[in-house]
Structure prediction request, 259 residues.
Amino acid sequence: MTPLRLTCREVTRLVLEGEERSLSVSERVVLRLHWLACDGCTRFRRQMQTMRGALDRWRQYRDGGDDASSGSA
Amino acid sequence: MTDFARDVEALRPQLMRFARTQLRNDAWAEDAVSDTLLAALERPQSFSGLSQLKTWLVGILKHKVVDQLRRHSREATVLVSEDGEDLDEALFDELGHWRESPPDWGDPVSSLGQRQFFEVLEACVEQLPPVQGRVFMMREWLELETDEICKELSITATNLWVLLHRARLRLRECLQTRWFTARRPA
Prediction:
């Protein structure tokens, strides 16, 4: 079982793991508890959400080819 | 040369860049792109523009780069020293607290659609150490599941997770420096 109190370092690891797998309910509870009390980790989480969105748009931009002749050789 | 052949040729530099970013090896990238062009020229199709043609070619290229990664999996997973570097020590103190609290990136929705941003992002990805870069691109560009990546490269799940963890922290650091801090008025 995931302990209820994690350090910021452990929380960060879990948030990053969330990019590779779906987190369990108890893991998500632990994260929410931590975020309630920690502004740094809350901002880190938002940064990761921003990166997630940016990477999805980047993939579309690269593959979509709305400007197909612009590659730098 | 037919129009089709000319259009395919015109897209070659972009395909090379994509292949290089994923494979991080010029010879493998050449092979992946050649395989792609060959496959395309064997079944010419008509498209209403370069953009559609590109989408089709990129689709083929994604399969060809996986072939290369599989073929060269042993070399592709040899860590250079930078691949082994962990940013965690720099970010957290011995109690696991942030040494420096992460700043607010604001709400950069519109700026993220800019071509300039994508160029910075691309440059940051290209700066990842080679093995980190390969697995990161397999995840984010090829959109492979982690177990597929482990299978193609014959690495353990633990190794892969560590590499992706490092890659994402590095990318964050690079974006922080080259986009979010650089754009903020002093």
Summary: The two ends of chain A are 52 Å apart (CA to CA). The longest helix of chain A spans residues 39-64. Residues 24 and 35 of chain A are 17 Å apart (CA to CA).
